[in-house]
Structure formats: structure tokens, C-alpha cells
Write a structure and sequence with these properties.
single chain; 478 residues; alpha+beta; tRNA-splicing ligase RtcB; 19 strands; 33% helix
């Protein structure tokens, strides 16, 4: 695929017509600068987007965010909306780590009051929030409790003393997707889920202690509970082995399902089922179990972090700003050609970014739009944005989820030494607590795109507006 095949809409939007490739049912729209578009053409991510445009029943465009990179079948940083009546659902277009997402908490303390305690606070957080491959979680669940978590999400945490009402209000979908059904989940997934609730995992998952370095919209920041100069904390995790197993199960199952419904696809990694079919409904029910598990997982981690914070800084508080998903399939209503239609919005490595006055948002965000959390790579800035009306029109209310990789994990480990990276970050004043130097190398800043260039594209395309900029003080990796 070459840049000449894309039609320039403006400096931050590019269109790949549906005639570009046989089988495409809708165009692909890429939100990127020309430089970032050229960079995206270095892997298969845009080819994957064109393949995804062949999924039956799509509405609007397949949208590609500026942090795009190659994924399994469907690009990471991709969005596609399938008509609920005539479309399909594809596990590969949602991702293996179902409801991988980010939670941001902001403190009532300015950095100057806590600076000398950051190292000890980070070490305590590391021990209080389990991490690493296959690591056990804060809570060991019995089968009955796991069922309750998967049906109630963060509501289970509230009932059991691990959440506040404010935490629930400031979580996407109040931390629970309706329609979860444990009957759709395999016994192997259940085995993997019972002991990982409240665990960070490894890979690109992290806990980061940040400074709110700059506020761009004081009224919106106040509504979100963000205060310049204060300490903040980000948590990035998902549904752990539970969600991964559910995706694995259905990718395998749908290999035959696609043939059953005579769905012809350019890439078998996009295997899917009609949304209204028994198989499609079964995957939706299982996916929602994983999504609710992930909401509860981040809630448990947030609660544990809050307990450590309040022990270190008596009388101070760590309040939830927002918690959102960036690997998810959601049934939503959107406008297409002047008609409001129910669709399943596949967001893979893309986050919801609803604009002001949307009924799904709590009262405190009705004027500001939804908080949108866009973490940078380890050691770089992160951003809090707000969703816009333009995002509702252009991308089904969707936005970037982070910086986006430019080096694979294998490439990063070959090019970067974990011990040298750790020393450099420490020299820059960023304390690092990591379970593995190899894992640290995989997540080095140079393995990712420039987060500020990504934000410039988002803002240039009108998908989000800047609220606050965060800078890192300490990083915890599994």
C-alpha cells in the first residue's frame, strides 16, 4: 500500500476509497499527519484496516487513529461500526486483552508535600499491587464470586468494600456492561480468572505516579477533579488471562462459524459471526464477562493504591478521575447519513471519546465531554483530553489510546538494554520499579511514537481537546 492511494481530506485526515481493494464495503479514514501516515505504511496496519473494511454490515468508515500499529487481523488503533441487525462481531477486532484500559486518579496533595516520599511510596505500591506474567491478584475468588464479578463488574467491588460511589460514577458504563453470561465462558477461562482479580500483569501494563504539570481548561479540569501541581496516578491493565482465554476460545470457534454463514474474508484473523446469530450473541455475552472482570480488576488495583496512599499521607485523598476501556465491542447508537442506527462499535487500541451532552455521561461531564486518557510511553508525558461533538460525527465518538508502537517487543529487546534504560530514567528523576529488565526494555520510550505528535493529530482532527498534561515521577512495571 502506498501513500498515493490515499485522498487527502485535510492535514490530519486521509481517505482510502472503497474501490482501492476488492471486497472493501466502506472507506478507511486515517487520522494522521502526512509524516505519521508514511510511518504507518511501514507495517501492515493500514493493509489490515483495508481488510477490515470487508467485514459485512459495516456503517460509516473504518477509522484509524494516529497511534496505529499492526495487530492480530485488525490494526491496533482501529475502529469499525457494524450494523446490529445485519453486521458481524469479530473477536480479533476487539483484541485478546478484552477491556484493557486505563484508570486515572488525582490526589488532593501538591507534589511539594510528597516529593521526598515518592521512592518509598512507589516501593509500597509495587508490593501492594501484584504484577508479572501469571501473577496472582489481590483477591482470590471462588467460583460463585467470579460469577458475581463477571455479572456486576465494579459493582461487586462496591458491595464488598473495594470501591466508593464516586468510583462507580466515574467509570465508563459505571463499571458494568449488561448482558454478561457465564454460561458462555469456557472452563479453562474460569480457571484462569479465579486468582488474578486485582493484578497488573506484564507487557505494556503499568502503574505510573505523575505530576499534573499543566492545565489547559481550568473549568473542565475542576469538573474532572484534576489540579495543577498535584500528584496523580495511572493504572493500565485489563482482563488478564481470563479475557485472553475468552478471545482465544472464540477465535478458534469462529473459524468454522464464518464458513457456516458463508462469510468470505481477506484475512482469517478477522473471523467473525453475525451479531444476531447464536454464536455472535454467545461471544458478546462472554466478552462482557471479561469486560466486567477488567473493570473490577482496575477498581481493585485502584483501591489498593488508595489504601497505600492514605497510609503514607494521612488526611489526603486519591480520587478517581475516570476509568475507560480501549479494547471493547459496544452496542451504541450513532448517526449515519442522517439516520440514527444501533451498531456494534469495535474499538481495538482506541478509546471512547463521547462529546458534551451525551446521555451516557454522568452529570459532572455533561458540559465538558467525556474524559479521555491517553498515556504516553514510559518516561514521557501523558494527556487528559475531553471528547468532542466532532468525534461523534467522525469516529463514532472514538479517540487514540496511547502513543502506539514503532518497534515490536522483540526489536526493542534487541536494541535496548533494560539496565541502561533504568539508569537513564533514574538519572532523569523517574524512579523505576520493575520485575524484569527484559520487560522494561520492551517498553522503552524509543519503542513508541512521539505522544505529543499523536496528540497534535487528535486535536487537529477535532477528536479531542486538551485538558491537562501529566509528567512521570515513578513507574511500576510487571
Amino acid at each position: 500500500m502506498k501513500i498515493g492511494q490515499f485522498e487527502k481530506i485535510n492535514d490530519f485526515e486521509w481517505r482510502l476509497p472503497r474501490e482501492t481493494q476488492p471486497g472493501m464495503r466502506v472507506p478507511v479514514v486515517v487520522f494522521a499527519s502526512e509524516r505519521m501516515l508514511n510511518e504507518a505504511l511501514q507495517d501492515r496496519s493500514l493493509e489490515q484496516a483495508a481488510n477490515a473494511a470487508a467485514l459485512p454490515g459495516l456503517r460509516g468508515n473504518v477509522c484509524v487513529m494516529p497511534d496505529v500499529h499492526q495487530g492480530y487481523g485488525f490494526p491496533i488503533g482501529g475502529v469499525a461500526a457494524a450494523d446490529y441487525e445485519t453486521g458481524v462481531i469479530s473477536p480479533g477486532a476487539i483484541g485478546y486483552d478484552i477491556n484493557c484500559g486505563v484508570r486515572l486518579l488525582c490526589s488532593t496533595l501538591p507534589l511539594q508535600d510528597v516529593k521526598t516520599a515518592i521512592t518509598d511510596f512507589t516501593a509500597a505500591l509495587y508490593h501492594a499491587c501484584p504484577s508479572g506474567v501469571g501473577g496472582r491478584g489481590i483477591v482470590a475468588l471462588k467460583a460463585r464470586e467470579l460469577k458475581a464479578v463477571c455479572e456486576q463488574g465494579s459493582g461487586w467491588a462496591l458491595k464488598n468494600g473495594y470501591a466508593t460511589a464516586g468510583d462507580i460514577e466515574t467509570t465508563e458504563d459505571s463499571g458494568c456492561m449488561e448482558g454478561a453470561d457465564m454460561e458462555a465462558v469456557s472452563s479453562r477461562a474460569l480457571e484462569r480468572g479465579v486468582d488474578q482479580a486485582g493484578s497488573l500483569g506484564a507487557g505494556n501494563h503499568f502503574i505510573e505516579i505523575d505530576l499534573v504539570a499543566e492545565v489547559f481548561d481550568s473549568a473542565a479540569a475542576l469538573a474532572m477533579g484534576i489540579h495543577q501541581g498535584n500528584l496523580a496516578l495511572q493504572i493500565h491493565s485489563g482482563s488478564r488471562g481470563f479475557g485472553h482465554q475468552i478471545c482465544t476460545d472464540f477465535v478458534q470457534k469462529f473459524q468454522t462459524v464464518a464458513r457456516k454463514y458463508q462469510i468470505d474474508l481477506p484475512d482469517r484473523e478477522l473471523v467473525c459471526a453475525p451479531l444476531k446469530s447464536p454464536e455472535g450473541q454467545q461471544y458478546l455475552a462472554a466478552m462482557r464477562c471479561a469486560a466486567n472482570y477488567a473493570f473490577c480488576n482496575r477498581q481493585l488495583l485502584g483501591h489498593s493504591a488508595r489504601m497505600v496512599f492514605e497510609r503514607f499521607f494521612p488526611g489526603a485523598h486519591l480520587l478517581n478521575v475516570y476509568d475507560l476501556a480501549h479494547n471493547i465491542g459496544k452496542i451504541e447508537s450513532h448517526q449515519f447519513g442522517g439516520e440514527k442506527i444501533n451498531v456494534c462499535v469495535h474499538r481495538k487500541g482506541a478509546t471512547r471519546a463521547f462529546g458534551p451532552d451525551h446521555p451516557a455521561l454522568p452529570a459532572r461531564f455533561q458540559k465538558t465531554g467525556q474524559p479521555v486518557l491517553v498515556p504516553g510511553s514510559m518516561g514521557t508525558e501523558s494527556w487528559v483530553l475531553a471528547g468532542t461533538a466532532a468525534a461523534m460525527e467522525k469516529s463514532c465518538g472514538s479517540c487514540s489510546h496511547g502513543a502506539g508502537r514503532v518497534l515490536s517487543r522483540t526489536q526493542a529487546k534487541h536494541q535496548i538494554r533494560g539496565d541502561e534504560l533504568r539508569s537513564r530514567l533514574m538519572a532523569e528523576g523517574i524512579y523505576v520499579q520493575a520485575g524484569s529488565l527484559g520487560g522494561l526494555a520492551e517498553e522503552a520510550p524509543q519503542a513508541y511514537k512521539d505522544i505529543n505528535a499523536v496528540i497534535a493529530c487528535i486535536e487537529g482532527a477535532g477528536l479531542g481537546r486538551r485538558i491537562a498534561r501529566l509528567t512521570p515521577l515513578a513507574v511500576i512495571k510487571g
